[in-house]
Amino acid sequence: MKNLLLVLAVTSFALAGATQKEEPKKTTAKKTTAAKRSPTPAKKSNTTAKSSTSKKKPSSPTSSATTKGTDKKTAASNEKAKPKPSATRSRPKSTATKNDDKSDLEKALAIEDPEKKLTALTRFLSAYPKSSLRVRALESLTAVRIALGDANVEAGDPEYGLKLIREALRDAPVPYPEKLFVEIISKVPSALYLRGQRAAAIEAALAVEKNSASNLSQLLTLADFYLSTENGDAAKRLAEAAIKLDEKSVAAYQTLGIGHRLNFDLDTSEAAFAKALEIDAESVGARRSLADMKRALGKSDEALSLYAEVLTKDPEDLMAQTGRILSLFESGKRSEAELELSRSIEADKANVILLAGAAWWYVSN
Fold first, then answer.
1. Which of 29, 185, 312, 364 has the highest Cβ tally under 10 A?
2. What is the pLDDT of residue 89?
3. Which of residues 73 and 293 earns the better pLDDT score?
């Protein structure tokens, strides 16, 4: 029993000693772990930082974890604070290249349906405001609008049709390209007039005149519309505007002469045709028109001389032949006139002007 108690005492004494020996080891382990978890200084080359770090006591695992959490939050907040690159900056601006606009315009021009073509051309002009092909696109858009407008007027929808035509004349490239004017724009007033849209025809003519003020041939072409509708005043206005652009324009003086003739101002008409012939002595039209005015004013002998000059250059000139025969009647040369009349009727039985003129002479005499 004594031996047992002695063994227990020794054993407990040994256990107590072992416990005291292991205490420092646990502390060392804790220190090592804490040292590993502690944050490493940013700059290793800084000697002062190293020495100050070595003097600091290692932090506990809890404080280390807290520090890490704080670092993460700080990093996260820094990330949020950093300005993010915008989508506009990261993506280069898309600019339309020549290849792009050329391809898109060709696609639009290839469309056959007028409404879809109109939409495609409008979209092209909006997408490429500075394209070198803009004038070409505007020409095509003008042609499409006028064609579609005319079709709608004819189909019984004048409101939509006239809207398209007005937009076409408003947005057409100015000055008008010659081909666009001759083939499309110059025909608008006449087409509207023939469809019964007379007010719209005059409106269109005035819009065209405004954009053709500096183009002599376009002014005279527009004047022809007024002549065809027997609007002598408007024709004279455009002829006078053309003369201001070119005082040597034979066509302008001829148009002026016809305008005066429509207003039954025969003397002024004769003077205008005489001026045209003075500018160009070889002008057949001016000589024939002057002969007509001479005959209308009762100057039959002068008219006969002028008609003869025309027929010398062109024996087949039907208007000169007609004028000559009527001048023969009016100058009292009835036999010669009737002989020429018979020959002319055999050659052309549909010469209404000659038949009416001769009939009038017979009735009057």
1. 185
2. 52
3. 293
Residues 249/268, Cβ–Cβ less than 8 Å: no
Element at 130 (helix H, strand E): none
- Tens digit of each residue's pLDDT (9 = 90 or more) over 252-271: 999 999 999 999 999 999 99
pLDDT at 59: 47
Which residue pairs from 212-218 have beta carbons closer than 8 angstroms and sit at least 24 positions apart in sequence?
A: 212/175, 212/176, 212/181, 213/241, 214/175, 214/245, 215/175, 215/176, 216/242, 216/245, 216/246, 216/249, 216/252, 218/176, 218/181, 218/186
Distance CA 319, CA 229 (A): 21
Of all helices (H) and strands (E), which one includes residue 302? helix 300-313
Q: Which two tokens stand for residue 218?
A: 């376009």
In order of 9, 43, 51, 55, 332, the CA distances from 48 in angstroms are 54, 10, 5, 11, 137
* Contact predicate 60/52, CB 8 Å: no
Please state the rounded mean pLDDT for residues 77-98. Answer: 51
| Tens-place pLDDT, residues 154-183 | 999 999 999 999 999 999 999 999 999 999
Record the tokens describing residue 335, joined without a space. Answer: 């036999």
Of 205, 204, 198, which Cα lies nearest the Cα of 221?
A: 205
Region label for 332, one of left (φ > 0), alpha (ψ between -120 and 50) or beta (otherwise): left
pLDDT band at 229 (very low <50, low <70, confident <90, very high): very high
Question: If you ran DSSP here, which 8-state letter would residue 185 be given?
Answer: G
Best CA proximity match to 141, nearest among 161, 169, 160: 169
Q: Are 259 and 225 in contact (CB under 8 A)?
A: no
Separation of alpha carbons 19 and 233, rounded Å: 131
Tally: H helices and E strands in the chain: 20, 0
Q: Rounded to an integer, what distance in angstroms lies between the CA atom of residue 347 and that of residue 351?
A: 9
